[in-house]
Amino acid sequence: MIAQMVLWQEKHIKEIFARLVDAGALKPDVDIDFWAKTHASLNYAFMGRYAIGIWDTHEGHECKNLEGMIRALYNTVFRLHGK
Question: What crossing angle do the helices spanning 32-52 and 66-81 adopt, rounded to 10°?
Answer without folding.
Answer: 160
